[in-house]
Structure formats: structure tokens, C-alpha cells
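Changelog note: in this version the structure field was regenerated for every chain. One regenerated record is shown below for reference.
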Amino acid sequence: MLDRLVRVARERGLASCALTFEPHPREYFALAAAPSRLARLRDKLELIAGAGVDRVHVLRFGAPLAGMAPERFAADVLAAGLGSRWLLVGRDFRYGAKRAGDFAQLQASGATLGFEVEAMPDVLDGGERISSSAVREALSAGDFARAERLLGRRYAMSGRVAHGEKLGRELGFPTANIVLRRKPPLAGIFVVEAELEETRQKLRGVASVGRRPTVKADAAPLLEVHLFDFAGDLYGRHLRVAFLAKLREEKKYGGLPALREAIEEDAARAREWFSRIDQDHG
């Protein structure tokens, strides 16, 4: 979709622009029932920029936007606000208060306000429609090969490393902790490859995504990454974590000794996974 946007903008001598909302409208109306986020806002902006888009406009989704009639959205936001001349949306795109606006109405508004509207056809992968729902399904099942096919890249999370409770260090497995402020699309224990933003250094490791039931009840989701063969201070640094394979589901243990044993086994299995990959590509 972004490739099509950039190509048409260049053909017409226009600036390419992507419009997104923060938070997602479904998060605004029913946070608990909203689908998990596939990317944080920062990741989304980096991916859009990487596709060659000139500008991104992030609209704060709140009561004013939620109550805006479709005609006013088209006139005030798309035409007057963004100066739109050509618009690309999915054919099932809905907009305006109570999602009253549809593709046909947007086309009609465009004809009056001076912008064209095009519907993006479905993009298929082996007959399967590529969609955020399909990606979430693949990630939830730990099928990272399918997720990579659908995304066109390895699935990754990123964030700034925060101070934690230092429990991993006490157990002999220090971790880089990234707080997840939205529900992640996957949970469990994973083989990962992390990258430090500042140096692009790639580091192998094992990671946990979940709520740490052995340590604390009703904790917020957390990404904890134990990096192999690394010694250094990561606090405050930005880390991107690519998920390569799922080892198991998250589990509540009877105490810290049992948890330590499980982490040791997870780390050993992750190292074995990398060893097999190295042999296959050696």
C-alpha cells in the first residue's frame, strides 16, 4: 500500500503522506476488547519512513474526532487540513462518527472537495489475504515463518530498556526489560535476536513476553530479554528485538529455584537453536 502511495505521489509531483491515529480508535472506545498492537507508534513511524513516505500525520483520537461527521472529516481533515489530492484506502475503510462513512461516500466527498479516491485491492500471499488479523494469528501461534511472509520482514518489538526489580540478575540471568504499555500480540518464551539502536550490534538471546506469574500477580505485560555473551549497561538504551522461534508458553512455578531451572533450560534450548541454524548455514 505504501509502495503504491509513494509511486503515485512521484508520478503526480506530490508529497506522499500517511495518516494514522493515536490511540487506535478501537482502543479509545474499548481498550480491553481492542486487538493487540503489532507495532508501537515509534516502530510504525520508522517503518513508514523506511518505505519512502515523505510525511506522516498522527491525529490524536479523542472525543472531537470520535464525534466528527464523515462529511466534516473529509472537508476539515482530508481536504483543508492535509490538502489531499489523491487518497488510497482499503475498500472496507470506514470513517466518521459511528463509522458512518464508507468508500462510496468518501469518493463522493472527494469529487466535491477536489481529491481522488482509490481502493487498495487485497494483497495475497499464496492465496491468503494479508491482513493484521492474519499476522496476529500467526504470532499468537508462534508461526514466525508465516508472520514473516505476511509482513515481508521478521517480526520485532522495540523500546527503551527500563530498570526492573533486578530479579533476573539475582537468578544469574540478567535481563533487559521493556515495558509494554499495550497488549502484545504474542506471549511465552522465545529465541530472539536483539539489535542496539546506537551501534546496530546484533545480540542473540532468549526472551519472555508476559506477566511473570511466578513473581507478581496481575503485573503489566513486560518484554524481558537475556542476551548471551554480553556484559554492559543497557539502561536507557533503545533495543529492537526480533522473534525467531517459540520455545514454550509462560508458566507459573512454585518458587524461584524452579523458575531458575526453567530459565536455564530455556537458555540452553535457545543456544541449541542458534547452533543448528549456524550449522545449516555453515
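Spot check on this record: The chain is about 35% helix and 25% strand. The chain has two domains: 2-125, 154-280.
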